[in-house]
Target: inorganic diphosphatase
Amino acid sequence: MARSVQTLDRLPTVDPDSGDLTVVIETPRGSRNKYKYDPERGVIRLGATLGEGLAFPHDFGFFPSTRGEDGDPLDVLLFLDSAVPPGCVATARLIGVLEVEQKEKRKPWKRNDRFFAVATPAHEHQRLKHLDDLRPHLLPEIEWFFTHYAGLNGKELRVVRRSGPARARKLLEAGVKAFKAGK
Model:
C-alpha cells in the first residue's frame, strides 16, 4: 500500500506515537550558519551566516503544522544533549516561551515568539520543566543572541515577556489553529 509523503512543515504537531510535540530542526547548536526550511522544494537552505563570535546557543527549528503572525511556523529553541543535523525531527515538551515582537524597517511590529522545549529523549536536560529551571543568566544570554541576530538582519526585536509552559501551550494551540485556518 502506497503511503503519502508529508513535507516537514506539515507533519503532525503532536507526535502520534509518543504524544509529545514534534520539532523540526533547521539550525544545530553551535552553528554560525542559519538554515531555513523551504517547503516548496522540501529542502533546507542556507539562509544566512552569522558574524564571528555569534552562534546558535541551542538547536533551533519549528513546530510543524503551526503558523505565527509572521506567516512562518512557530520557532522553537530545543534543549538537547548534543546538536543534531538540519532536517532532524525530534519529540519534545514545552518549558516556556519568550514572547517577542519584531519589525523590519518601516513595517509594523509583529509577534515572532521563541518557544523553549526539551527533547524527550534528552538525559542532561530532563530536569527542566519551566524557564525558571534554566541556569542563571541563560535567558538574558538567549535574549541577547536573538536581539543581535535580528539586528544583523536589519530587524528590531523586543521582548514582551517570558512565560511558562501553560502560556506556551496556549500560544502553540493558537498557532495550530492559524495553520488550519490558512490551509
Q: What stands out?
A: The chain has a mean pLDDT of 93. Residues 165-181 form the longest helix (17 residues).
